[in-house]
Amino acid sequence: MGGLKSWARYGFLLVGHLLALGLGAAVFQALEGPPARQLQAQLRAELATFQAEFGACLPPNTLEGLLDAVLAAQTHGVSSLGNSSEAKNWDLPSALLFTAGVLTTTGYGNTAPLSWGGKVFCLVYAALGLPASLAVVAVLRHHLLPVLSRPGAWAAARWQLAPARAALLQATGLGLLVGGIFMLLPAVLLWQLQGGGSLLGAIYFCFDSLSTVGFEELLPGRGRNLNPVIYHLGQLALLGYMLLGLLAMLLTVETFVELPQVRALVGFFVPSSPPIAEDQGGIVGQDELALRTVSSSSSMSCTAPPAAPAREQAPAC
Amino acid sequence: MGGLKSWARYGFLLVGHLLALGLGAAVFQALEGPPARQLQAQLRAELATFQAEFGACLPPNTLEGLLDAVLAAQTHGVSSLGNSSEAKNWDLPSALLFTAGVLTTTGYGNTAPLSWGGKVFCLVYAALGLPASLAVVAVLRHHLLPVLSRPGAWAAARWQLAPARAALLQATGLGLLVGGIFMLLPAVLLWQLQGGGSLLGAIYFCFDSLSTVGFEELLPGRGRNLNPVIYHLGQLALLGYMLLGLLAMLLTVETFVELPQVRALVGFFVPSSPPIAEDQGGIVGQDELALRTVSSSSSMSCTAPPAAPAREQAPAC
């Protein structure tokens, strides 16, 4: 495959990705624009009605000033409504949820740190904590993957499947299992706990949390009328869900990423070049250098290069 | 190293991680609790003053009703204040930023989709788009890593550095470069553009975006008084910053993750076990199975197992 062809494919991939970004934006615009305008119109109408009915009593900018204060407070998670106890915002379960939100990069809206100390600590904590979390996930992966591999190995042996097909089957099975346990089941539970409402909304919240996009802040806002014990139990349940669910997601993603089919797809867009450098990452083959100094006979790395197509390659060992 | 010892280490790692979560929560609580309570007290005072002065004019729950509506609208990015044009919320630059926020899982607060169509599309788009983005990053990585490897290789050759040391030097250099270009420089620019304000705040915003935690929504909210052209340019600049900056972050993280020192650290917590299964990921050694069928002489995978310590291992090829 010529150099030009692969660069062309690479270019198409990037352009395609940017197009997909643009198209997604257009679809969101089409779906969300009208409801947003409608909500805005409604809000304007309410404000206008309020002003019309009671504007006489109020000095010119008093209401705006109050609204300003109330809205600003909300962006820091401080509520103006109800009898929310003063301690609720940063009681330990809430603080744990916030911290987990930082570590998992979910970052639910509405609770950005207020104080400079909080912002600096958030920076430092994330800078140290995110790599540490990645390391923990890597360790957990080493422990769990052999366990997760067994069903696939059993299927491969039992039905004489090609390794690639068995791998795909296993990855898909894992995906469905994780989706069922961490997306559908919690969504149904949440739906029931909310006493009806919308199942789709519950599914959306679960996906939003697990993908770490983190738009919706379900519990902290709407739980103000709940029994405090139940509210805290709910927070701890959410915390456990975030940590376990995210771990499950990462393991599933890794399993898919290492499928020969996925590697082939990625390899399709990569110009043919010696696998050695990319394979070892970082500096040109630390391991390769080690190999060179120790064994002069071996001239090619024995790892199956990720860039190679999915045909079972017999490494030249 | 005995089986018990490594499980103990593994246990310590997990417990240590959970302790770090708890300690982080306690620190955030200590730093943020008082300011939040103070803000809440301020807000209560404002509401009380308002009620005291003008409460006579207003029927019992009118103000609460209005505040409710206003606050709810804000969580969907609809503003009650100023002369924000109706179209601004989901004009194309805003929609692009939102979509990029989904794809990068940054998820800035305050703009959760309103409509059911929007939520469903968000779900589907993220489910398809996130893996696609990972694939694109993998491809970009294949292209960029050889380029990024050259300084390290040069340094290794020039100063006769051990491969591991050169790799660490290179990774650190890359980290500093990325930090400078994508954190410090934009923060300073942002700081100047804001006309003073806080440099720390600007740095915090940059880190918040790049780590995809996504608490602060700098531009969309505060830009309402800006010239529309400048506002849109700012949005597009933010978009480019998010995409490029995140790519740079991911590449840097990958470079660090593949350092022998990091592998050693991870390997410290993994029980000693045959490297074959874990190494190939997914199903027990697709490549291993291939090896078995093709070459019966080779009894051990030739890859340098990630679980091994950082001593230059000579694989038994």
Task: Give the ordered list of helices and strands of chain A.
Answer: HHHHHHHHHHH
The helix content of chain A, as a percent range, equals over 70%
Query: What's the tally of helices of chain A?
Result: 11
Number of E-type strands of chain A = 0
- Radius of gyration from the alpha-carbon trace of chain A, in angstroms: 26 Å
Oligomeric composition of the shown chains: homodimer
Question: Which overall shape of chain A is indicated by the principal axes computed on the Cα atoms?
Answer: globular
Report on the biggest sheet of chain A.
none
- What are the low-pLDDT stretches of chain A, counting only 5+ consecutive residues below 50? 273-317
Mean pLDDT of chain A, to the nearest integer, reads: 73
The interface involving the most residues is between:
A-B, 166 and 163 residues
Distance between the termini of chain A: 26 Å
Which structural class is indicated by helix and strand composition of chain A? Answer: mainly alpha
Task: Estimate the strand proportion of chain A.
Answer: under 5%
Keywords:
homodimer; 317 residues; mainly alpha; 71% helix; 0% strand; disordered C terminus
Describe the structure in your own words.
The first copy, chain A, is mostly helical and 317 residues long. Helix content of chain A is 71%, strand content 0%. Chain A has 11 helices and no strands. Chain A has helices spanning 3-54, 62-75, 92-103, 116-159, 163-193, 199-210, 218-222, 228-257, 260-268, 275-280, 286-294. Chain A is globular and about 80 Å long. Residues 273-317 of chain A have low confidence and may be disordered.
